[in-house]
Structures are given as structure tokens and as C-alpha cells.
Design goal:
Layout lengths: L3 E5 H11 L3 E4 L6 H12 L11 E4 L3 H13 L4 E5 L1 H16 L5 E6 L14 H4 L7 E4 L3 H18 L3 E6 L7 E5 L3 H7 L2 H9 L19 H6 L2 H22 L6 E5 L5 E5 L3 H14 L4 E6 L1 E3 L3 H7 L6 E6 L10 H14 L11 E7 L8 H10 L8 E4 L20 H4 L1 E8 L4 H15 L3 E7 L8 E9 L14 E6 L14 E10 L4 H7 L2 H9 L3 E5 L2
Parallel strand pairs: 2-3, 2-4, 4-5, 5-7, 6-7, 10-11, 10-13, 13-14, 14-15, 16-19, 19-20, 20-21
Antiparallel strand pairs: 1-8, 6-12, 8-17, 9-11, 16-18, 17-18
Helix pairs in contact: 1-2, 1-6, 3-4, 6-10, 11-14, 12-13
């Protein structure tokens, strides 16, 4: 397992982007900052890319400046990239229209984050990515830390082969900051995916007095429309190019991807369609329900733009009767969110064609979930599948909140669990921001991930404050890859640690503890007096759950 790494999503992406770039323009914005910081650090250390050169890393005055720098570097024939999120991505949109309009290869790596509306949020959803749908950039989604690394490589190869710039996105915090054990991509694979012939072609398209060309013109009504439509062949061909790159990547690494990946019963009647980290939770739930005899499935969207309706339809089982499309964004005033409408149009047009895939058009409903990193767990997935069994399901719904205003939310049973809870070892650590708890847990995950055969996952919950607020670290370990992209549920953790005794009076620290769990308390109170110092409610919980209690003064 020498090619295994225990890293977070930002590092997984930066590790690929750095090695296949010559110019990297950066400007920090949460939760994408880690990618730029690592690139800057590696360049300062003299770390080379796969061609033996140290990339030029430049920090600009804003995200708009970073995008402009990338645009300029591309015009000079360089391989350039940038990293951003949220409001930063919005500042890049003007340059994105130009880059795509000029059919210039590049990859923007985005840790997808909520946009500021009624309030600012640093947490993850797809609002920012959806704002770029009209730019002409291809949109490629990753669902996990492993996929974030792999799709970074696939995006880099696809953009060179197909000349469409790619926005590669993954969920802010849930993927960007999750620490997981993954299989790395080595330099030889990357060099093979980016052949010198394609790089030479990029060089030849550069602005140079050796082969002058005119760009950035102002066109009148006599030619603009025709020139705009003349790009259609590149967009039409791009899904096939991405699939070929995915196939080549699969042959080289053993990890195979499709534009639309289906998981579940081959004769499924109910299917959920979505993209991003939520797909991991849905897959875990689908596999659990399949073992219970339920005919359910999941369709993961990987290439969102250009939209490939034929690939979508081919991936859906012909037995499908009901579909729920989940969007991690809100488009106020629209009759549905973007992914929902794309799926609906594809199904409707196919039903009206000469060779419809389905004898009866499946009923399709659309829902919103996970805005600003709102929790999305198997209980909510089960509620969506249950909703599809109704004769008249809610056509538009939300899940994960209690909507007592417009009453769109689906009820769910918090007690629902999948088999993954029993198959993994879960631990929860309580600390204060800047007290070292999160850093120590990251080290623990990396040690266990690197030195054992176990898979590891770490996710860290904290608010927007820089320090002094409560942090909750959720760790999981198990013999199989971990798809649980949600927080540890109540009664599921086999180990609980509290690093700050002040939480004993203010928080229910044992709510997550499973029966027979271990509770480790860091406290200056002498061991023979600790029990008496605990709140009575906690003493009762420890007795009822048969908790193994340990104390340390650290």
C-alpha cells in the first residue's frame, strides 16, 4: 500500500494541479485556500511538476486578478490553473466567458461554497458553481477525496484534448476539508494523460509574433451570431472526449468512471440523481436498502456541462418508475433547480422521440438539500426514497430541515441507520478552537491511515470564528473505503474524548456514545474526585450506557 496517502480534499486536488501546471495564480478564500497555500509552499521548496520545472505561483490582489492572470498565461501558451470558491468564483466569471469563448484549455478547481444572500456563509453547496453555467466552461463534479484527486487529473487531460476549459468542483468543507485515505496518482500516469503533442498544440495557439493571430475583436451583427454557433462542434464532442479520458484513466489506475455512474439494483424502480459528496451518502443507503430487498438506485452526475442526455438515459435502468433529483442549491423564483430541470427535459424529449427508453415516462420530483453544509444523512435519503412510493409525491420538496413556513420539507426518522455504523469504528472529540484538538486528530488519522491497512476518515465541525469556539472532530476507521459523508449519529461513537472540562456543564457529551463506549476526559481534577465533579445527568448516562471512563491531566 505504498501508493496510499491520508490527506484532505484540498491537498488531493493541489497535488495533481501543481504537477500538471506551469503557472498557478492564487488568491485565498475559504474553503479553497489550502490548495493555493500548498502550491505556494511547494514552489518555495523548489518542488517540480511532472516535466521537471517549478511552476510559477503568483498571488494576486483579488480573485478577479487571479482569473485575469490565468487568462494572460493561457494566451502565452502556458498550462495555467487557479483555485477559488463562492464570491471569488463570481469575480472570475467575466474572464471565464472570454477563456471559454476563445476555446482555451485550463482547469479552475473550485471548493463549492454558498453565496452570500440574506447572510454570508463559508460553508458548502453548489450555488457558486451554478452561477457559472452559462460561461461555456465544462463542469466536472467530484464526490469524495479520492474522486477529487482523480477528477483533477481527468479534467486536466480532457481540457487539453477537447479545448473546453473545465471547472472541476467538489463540496466545500465536506470534501475539501475531509481527511481520507486514498490511492495516489503517480507522475508517469499524469505524463501519459497529458501527451507532448497536445501541449505543443497549446503552445502553437499562443500569441506570438512568429505566427500572428487576432483575438479580442469587436464583432457586429453580421458575423457575431455565426461565430458563436461555430463553437458547437467542440461542445458536442466534449462528453465523448471526457469519457475516453476516463476510460484511459481507468485502464491506468483501475479506478473507472462514467459521465453518469449508476449504482444499485439493476431492476431499480426508484432512483435518486445528484452530484457531489451527497452521492456517497446515497450510495451507502442504496447498498443497505438493496440488501433489504428494495429496488432502489443512485445515478451520480459527473459531467454536468456540457450536458449529455444520451449518457444520462443509457445509465438509468429501463425499469425506473420514479426519480428524485436533488440539487444542493436554491434558484429563487424558478420552477425547479438546475439539475432537476436538465433531467426533466432530457426525459421528456426522449419520451417524445421515435425510440423512447421507457415504456412509461417515470415520474420526476425535485428537492433541495444540504445548503451551506446542512447535514445530509442516510435517514434523509431513506425519506426521499419513501416519498417516491407515494401515489402523488411532493413535486418540490426540501429535506434536512423543518420547513414550518412553506411546508415543503419531508419528515424523516433520525433513528434510521445503515450497516456502515456497525462496520466502522467511530470516535468523537470535543475541543476549543486553537487548542490543538483538530490538529492532533489529523495527525492520528494520518498515522493510522499510513501505518495500518485500515481506511480512515476525519471531518471537523467548527463555526466561522477563528479561535475560541467549540470544535467537534468526527473520526471513522474501518477495513473498507468509508462513504459516510455525514456526522456521527447519536449513539454511534465507540470512543468519546473531551479536552475541555468546561463542556461538562454545557453540552451533552455522551449523546454520541454507543453502549459500552470509552469516554476519555482531560481534566486537572484528581482521579479520586472526578466522579463527584461530573453532572448528575452525565453520571446517569454513563451507568445506563455502561461507559468505560478514563481520565488524564494533559
Amino acid at each position: 500500500m505504498n501508493n496510499m496517502l491520508t490527506i484532505d480534499g484540498n491537498e488531493a486536488v493541489a497535488n495533481v494541479a501543481y504537477r500538471v501546471s506551469e503557472v498557478i495564480a492564487i488568491y485565498p478564500i475559504t474553503p479553497s485556500s489550502g490548495m493555493g497555500e500548498l502550491s505556494d509552499e511547494w514552489a518555495a521548496q523548489g518542488k517540480t511538476n511532472v516535466w521537471g520545472c517549478v511552476p510559477r505561483v503568483v498571488e494576486l490582489q483579488s480573485e478577479g486578478g487571479a482569473a485575469g492572470t490565468v487568462h494572460g498565461a493561457l494566451q502565452a501558451g502556458s498550462l495555467a490553473t487557479t483555485f477559488t470558491a463562492s464570491q471569488g468564483l463570481l469575480l472570475m466569471i467575466p474572464n471565464m466567458y472570454k477563456i471559454a469563448g476563445e476555446l482555451t484549455p485550463t482547469v479552475f478547481h473550485v471548493a463549492a461554497r454558498a453565496l452570500a444572500t440574506h447572510a454570508l456563509s463559508i460553508f458548502g453547496d453548489h450555488s457558486d458553481v451554478m452561477a457559472t453555467r452559462g460561461t461555456g466552461f465544462a463542469l466536472l463534479a467530484s464526490n469524495s477525496v479520492q474522486e477529487a484527486q482523480d477528477m483533477a487529473a481527468i479534467a486536466s487531460a480532457s481540457t487539453l484534448a477537447g479545448r473546453l476549459p473545465v471547472l472541476h468542483f467538489f463540496d466545500g468543507f465536506r470534501t475539501s476539508h475531509e481527511v481520507a485515505k486514498i490511492t495516489s496518482v503517480d507522475d508517469d500516469v499524469l505524463r501519459k494523460m497529458l501527451p507532448q503533442a497536445l501541449i505543443a498544440t497549446q503552445r502553437q495557439r499562443s500569441l506570438s509574433p512568429e505566427h500572428p493571430v487576432l483575438r479580442g475583436t469587436s464583432q457586429n451583427p453580421d458575423v457575431f451570431f455565426q461565430a458563436r454557433e461555430a463553437q458547437n462542434p467542440w461542445f458536442d464532442a466534449f462528453p465523448g472526449i471526457v469519457q475516453q479520458v476516463m476510460d484511459d484513466f481507468g485502464a491506468a489506475t483501475g479506478r473507472r468512471y462514467q459521465l453518469f455512474d449508476y449504482v444499485g439494483a439493476p431492476d431499480a424502480e426508484r432512483v435518486i440523481i445528484l452530484m457531489g459528496s451527497g452521492a456517497e451518502t446515497v450510495q451507502e443507503t442504496v447498498e443497505h436498502m438493496n440488501r433489504q430487498g428494495e429496488k432502489v438506485g443512485l445515478l451520480k452526475v459527473r459531467l454536468y456541462r456540457p450536458w449529455a442526455p444520451d449518457a444520462l438515459l443509457a445509465a438509468l435502468p429501463v425499469t425506473t418508475k420514479a426519480i428524485a433529483v436533488l440539487d444542493r442549491c436554491k434558484e429563487p423564483g424558478a420552477d425547479g433547480e438546475p439539475l432537476f430541470k436538465d433531467v426533466l427535459v432530457s426525459l421528456a424529449e426522449n419520451a417524445a422521440s421515435e425510440s423512447p427508453r421507457f415504456a412509461t415516462l417515470p415520474k420526476v420530483i425535485g428537492g433541495r438539500y444540504g445548503l451551506a453544509s446542512k447535514e445530509f444523512n442516510p435517514a434523509m435519503v431513506f425519506a426521499v426514497f419513501s416519498g417516491l412510493t407515494a401515489a402523488l409525491p411532493k413535486r418540490r420538496f426540501t429535506v434536512g430541515i423543518n420547513d414550518d413556513v412553506t411546508h415543503l420539507s419531508l419528515p424523516y426518522d433520525p433513528a434510521f441507520r445503515t450497516d456502515a455504523v456497525r462496520e466502522t469504528f467511530g470516535a468523537v472529540f470535543y475541543g476549543l478552537g486553537s487548542d490543538g484538538t483538530v490538529s492532533a486528530n489529523k495527525n492520528s488519522i494520518k498515522i493510522i491511515g499510513d501505518e495500518t491497512d485500515l481506511y480512515a476518515q476525519g471531518y471537523f465541525v467548527y463555526d466561522s470564528k477563528k479561535s475560541g469556539a467549540m470544535t467537534v472532530s468526527h473520526l471513522r476507521f474501518g477495513p473498507q473505503p468509508i462513504r459516510s459523508t455525514y456526522l456521527t449519529g447519536e449513539g454511534d461513537a465507540k470512543f468519546i474524548a473531551c479536552h475541555q472540562p468546561l463542556f461538562l456543564e454545557t453540552h451533552d457529551l455522551l449523546a454520541h456514545a454507543a453502549p459500552g463506549a470509552v469516554f476519555l476526559l482531560n481534566t486537572p481534577v484528581p482521579a479520586d474526585k472526578v466522579w463527584a465533579s461530573l453532572p448528575g445527568v452525565m453520571q446517569q448516562q454513563m451507568v445506563a450506557k455502561r461507559i468505560h471512563f478514563h481520565v488524564i491531566d494533559a
